[in-house]
Each structure stands twice: as C-alpha cells, then as structure tokens.
UniProtKB/TrEMBL annotation:
Lineage summary: Bacteria, Pseudomonadati, Bacteroidota, Flavobacteriia, Flavobacteriales
Transmembrane segments: 21-39, 95-114, 134-159, 179-205, 217-236, 242-263
The name this protein goes by in its record: Sec-independent protein translocase protein TatC
Family to which the UniProt record says this protein belongs: Belongs to the TatC family.
Membrane topology: Multi-pass membrane protein
Amino acid sequence: MAKKNKSEMSFLEHLEELRWLLVRSTIAILVASTAVYFVSDYIFDTIIFGPTHPSFYTYRFFCEASHYIGFADSICIEELPFTIQNTSMEGQVNVFVWTCITAGFILAFPFILWELWKFISPALYEHERKNAKLFIFIASFLFFLGVLFGYFVVVPMSVNFVATFSVSDVVKNEFNLDSYIGMIKTSVIASGLYFELPIIIYFLTKLGLVSATFLRTYRKYAIVIVLIIAAIVTPPDVVSQVTVAIPMLLIYEASIFLSAFVAKKERQNEQLS
C-alpha cells in the first residue's frame, strides 16, 4: 500500500507521527548520553566545575579587559570563597545521570531539529522544504552559540555573584551539589533555547501569530525584561549587566528583522499565486 501524504493524514495519524518523533529523539538523547558517560571525568572536572576556579577563561578575560580599559584590578577575581557539598545519599548518582542526559540532549539537538523539520515540513512551500539543511545548520548554530554564551558568560557571572555575596561574615557559602549543577543546566539550556528565538519567530510569523509590528510595539517591554534578567544573573556592576544584555537584545532585534522579511515574502507569494 502506498504511503499516505501527510496532508491527507488524520489527526490520530499525526499524533502517531509525533509519538515516533519523540521516540526517535529520546533514543538519540540516550545514545548521546551514553557517549558522554565515557568522558564524564572531563565533563565534570573541566567543564562543570571549571567556573569554580579563579583561573577560568572568562574571569581571566574580564581581568585583562579591566586592565585594558583602565579599571585596574576592579573586575579581577582572586578567589571564589565557597565549597560544593553533597548532602543526600543518592545526590551524586542523580547528578551524574541527569548531567549525562542534559549533555546528551545538547549533543543530539541537531538530530531533534531534523526530526522536527520532517514533522512540520508538509505545512511549508515546496521551495521552503528544500532548505532543510540550511534550517538545521542555522538552528543548530544558534542553539550551540546560546549554550556557549550561557556557559562562558551567564554561568561564571552568576557563580561569581553568589560566591562573593554574603549577608554576614558569620555565614559561609557551602553550596549543595544539586543546586550548583541545576544552576549550570538551567543557564546553559535556557540560553541555548533563547538564541532559537529567531527560528521561533520565523514560524510564528508564517502562521500569522506574530508580526514585526507586534515585536516593535512590545520592544520596550522586552528591553526591560532583558535588563531585569541581566541584573539577576550578573554581579551588580554595569559592565557585567551590559555584557549579558547586549547579545540578548541583538537576538530580539534580529527576530524583528526576520519577521518583517518573512511577512514580505509571504505577501509576494500570495501575489504570485
């Protein structure tokens, strides 16, 4: 029997397609997580706990930058006065498993995008379906760029802030392992997904749910939200807040431009048809 065209499939058949998308994506994540297991020592010692050392790349970069712009040692970090401890019997096991799964999700993200593209492609024009490779490349690039931004910018600034903040000299910072790992996972994944905003806006614009006019109208609210986020995750200094806020605002502006471009293309296609 010939395979049905997706445009002719029923709602339940679409749900079945979605179920298999989730199954294949889950398998891909588990395979990637298994690969991460074999390099787990490097993942934890060098990557996860890297931001706990004053010699971490980001701290050295900002220290050198402070000298360059005449701030002397005002941004330099000599020590991070905190320790990380485990307070539950199964804590390290849970952290190990979920860290491998998170890393597996990051590594498998291009495959997940490919599966998602196959699911939504029937709703696109023929010439748009031919751009599958370009879509996967751009979306994956933005996600990995966001992950790097989260790891090298958001995480070290957050660690520096919470490590040096104290309500009293009597209180010593001894962070729970699960809390520390959770902060890193949240910062990295959230940054990666935020950098996918242009891709999300692209599809929302095609569906008629978002427009460039809408994004421009609410730009001032977006700026306030970004500044609040930057103020929360960074130390209370202007340099750190601007460093986090500028890339996020640029992503938002790029989304406005993309929305306008997509809307223009949609109008041209309608005129030609």
